[in-house]
Amino acid sequence: MGKELILKTLRHEKTDDIPWVPFAGVHAGKLKGYTAQELLTDEDKLVESLLEVHKLYSPDGMPIMFDLQIEAEILGCELKWAKDNPPSVKSHPWEGPNKEIPCTCKIPTEESGRIPMILRTMRRVKEAVGEDTALYGLICGPFTLASHLRGTEIFMDMVSDPEYTKALVGYCAQVAIEMSRMYIDAGMDVIAVVDPLVSQISPKMIKKLLSESFTAVFDYIRSRGAYSSFFVCGNATKQIEVMCEMGPDGISIDENVNMPKAKEVTDRFNITLGGNIPLTTTMLFGNQQDNMKCVVDLIDSVREVSDGNFIISPGCDMPYDTPIENTVACAQAVKHLDSTRELIKNYETVVDTSNVEIPDYANSDKVIVELFLLDPDQCAACFYMRAAVEDIYDEIKDYAEYRVYKYCVKEDIPRYVKMGMTNLPTMTINGEQRFISLIPSKEELIAAIKEYVK
Amino acid sequence: MIKLIMLTGFLGSGKTTLLQKLIDEYAGHRIGVLINEFGAVSIDSELVEGNGIDMTELSNGSIFCACLKDKFVEALVELSGKDIDYLFIEASGLADPANMEDILKGLEKHLDRRYDYVHSVCIVDSTSYPDLIEVLESLDHQVVFSDIIILNKADLVTEDVIDSIKTDIYERNPDARVEEASYCNVGIRELIDAPSGLMGRVGETTNTFESRPQTLVLKGRGIVPIDELEPFIKEIAASTYRIKGFLETDKGPVRLDCVGEKILIEPWERELREAKVVVISSIGIRIVSVITSAMTKYLKGSISL
Questions:
Q1: At a CB cut-off of 8 Å and minimum separation 6, what does B218 contact?
Q2: Does residue B285 sit at the A interface (CB-CB below 8 Å)?
Q3: Which of A36, A134, A187, B92 is the most exposed place for a label (fewest CB within 10 A)?
């Protein structure tokens, strides 16, 4: 079971498989056609999108909401919303002369800001898929939150007024603890303390001003029987060691850090390492082959250091427009490493397509629906695409027929090449690519097929 | 006019004990009580019970701090409409009453009946005063802006210490009336009925956000084994200013009341409303790690943060 696989890994126990956690934050909205703002403010849309992530990407663990501005918004920062990105903070209430520590009466509660909606979402997703999927509650790390409140002056404060910095970060740790409490009570298995800015601070300064606040948060999470993961972005190569010393159960890094080297450090502390499929070069702009190859190479390189204590995930929050098929390819590679290794070999081989016979669509009596899948038994998106056609077959069988091809069947591969398939799964109707990675609803699919009826 | 008496004093000095004595002493009068606690949970209101008392609680900060001042003012306005002769205010241990007279002056027009601010009584813990007065600005202001100062727990220190505390206090506040006591045993009625020594002492409160220490609440989950409670409290006490609250144990309900490393765990006869303990940290956020580390050894599952 996926959830158990994650929890075992975070307990540093031996597992047969490597767990997979796609960080579908705003990208979840894309799956259902919602903007980032709609997704991050509307409970029903968020639940619907998250269940789609679960359906398409077969995650062992998944985040509920990837938005580091929730706490800042409650504490009075103004937000600037975007269609395809999480919001950003545009005002810092404690900047300049307002150099104070916010009142403890401002610490978020179950009633503050977007929290009621988030807690309801967490409970609904827990109910729907929480049995077999580890759910991640993401909170803003104390240092990044301090920077939201104080602005860039926080970097100067570290030098000119360390006591103030420490107190402000300590306050933000209190906020983090309260957020963790609410999220754990709402059923979250893992609390991810997301603090991208930590990579910008020297290890010496981290130890002096930040460590005890972070440690308090991780200790609190552990005392509640939940697991913690420390997410950082950017080149945190030098910081990994002090991050380990703070005592999280896991650390997650992005493509700026060399994974095998980081693994050597986390192994010394027996801490689980997660990461680091490159977000843009591979996930956003690469093709499926690139993504599969990336995951296979990543796993192989980490295994050269050691087995276990490892979670495969994107480097950070996936870009909104990440092609669905790329994420599907990553999932396929993690779940079926050896067969994927074979698949990539096939991709790289020159394929003889001379024997492939393309149907004569124009003169066929029936409309021809063709499904170009990876392995429908292994790839959830492929499974659902095939099911979509099977479910309506009785209604269309008088005027349409369907054929299924599998990329895992060697004889089928030349057809993929000849048909110019670049993204899988894809559904064609009379040879035209109509649904790429997206699973159509019953009505949509029937309507599309009817367009081709003579 | 409603006679207003303010009680101040650092955490654990004996404010609640004195408040109980005042309530007993003024039984038969119509009394209002306003309790201000630093933590999110009110513990002292459990301790102060009695018939015919109008009780108001303001938690989660000091009433003189900007974040609670508005609620404090609202409470004063509301209480001025009640049929009371006396209002006793127990300020939080970290309250800085420097601007009390200013507050009263500012709200005069909004009051049904005016307040006569007759006394501000500061209770000093003689055992900790010499150390803390150097550290806490709010403690200095409690001494300076009071007209009655009670050196409590005087039996626990030598005469030399009492003399040096008195010298220090007179340097800060030469007009104060200073009384020695243990368990707040002083002729409080006589002190309160004497003419006021407060004469327009107004200063700027130090209760800004920066002077607030970290406060946490421990929740009891079911029955706490008393054999583990003691070593648990011992382990965390050195990192706290104050621990107070109630827990349900295998030996029945208990009240905890610790000031620094002075630990009191005693049976509690009444039924508990809530099993909760407020911890005021003396080491900032690090207290969380100290507590969770102690929790791995003692009280597993029977207490949580």
A1: B245, B276, B277, B278, B279, B291, B303, B304, B305
A2: yes
A3: A187
- Average pLDDT, rounded, for chain A: 92
**Which sequence spans correspond to the domains of chain A?**
2-343, 361-450
Query: pLDDT digits over A49-71, tens only?
Result: 999 999 999 999 999 999 999 99
Domains A2-343 and A361-450 share a fold: no
How many whole angstroms separate alpha carbon B107 and alpha carbon A306?
70
Residues A370 and B97: their CA atoms lie apart, in Å, by: 80
Reply yes or no on whether the pLDDT at A232 is more than 60: yes
Q: How far apart are CA A273 and CA A260, in angstroms?
A: 10
To the question of pTM greater than 0.90 for the whole model, the response is no
Answer yes or no: do B285 and A170 touch at CB < 8 A.
yes
Across the interface, whether the CB atoms of B214 and A170 are under 8 A apart is answered yes
Q: Do A219 and B285 touch (CB under 8 A)?
A: no
Probe site for chain B from A94, A99, A105, A178 (most B CB atoms < 10 A): A105
- pLDDT, tens only, A122-134: 999 999 999 999 9
**Which of the four pLDDT bands, split at 50, 70 and 90, describes residue B48?**
low
CA–CA gap between residue B82 and residue B54 (Å, rounded): 8
Asked if the Cβ–Cβ distance from A103 to B292 is below 8 Å, we say no
pLDDT for residue A229 is more than 50: yes
Interface test with chain A among B209, B285, B290, B304, by most A beta carbons within 10 Å? B285
Q: Which CATH class is domain B213-304?
A: alpha beta
Rg (CA), chain A: 24
**B-chain residues near A215 (CB < 8 A):** 286, 289
- B297 contact A CB<8A: no
Which CATH number is B2-209 given? 3.40.50.300
* CB atoms closer than 10 angstroms to residue B252: 12
In this structure, whether the domain defined by A2-343 belongs to CATH 3.20.20.210 is answered with yes
Contact check, Cβ <8 Å, A103/B288: no
Give the residue carrying structure tokens 């006394």: B119
* Segment of A145-149, B40-44, B78-82, B299-303 carrying the highest mean pLDDT: A145-149
Residue A136 vs residue B69, higher pLDDT: A136
**Looking at per-residue confidence, does A115 or A414 come out higher?**
A115
Q: Do B305 and A167 touch (CB under 8 A)?
A: no
**Architecture in CATH for domain A361-450:** 3-Layer(aba) Sandwich (3.40)
Residue numbers in A near B288 (CB within 8 A): 173, 177, 216-217, 219-220
- Intra-chain end-to-end CA distance of chain A, in Å: 48
Contact A100 B65 (CB under 8 A): no
Which tops the pLDDT comparison, B227 or B102? B227
Tell me the C-alpha to C-alpha distance, in Å, between residue B246 and each of B61, B276, B300: 20, 6, 18
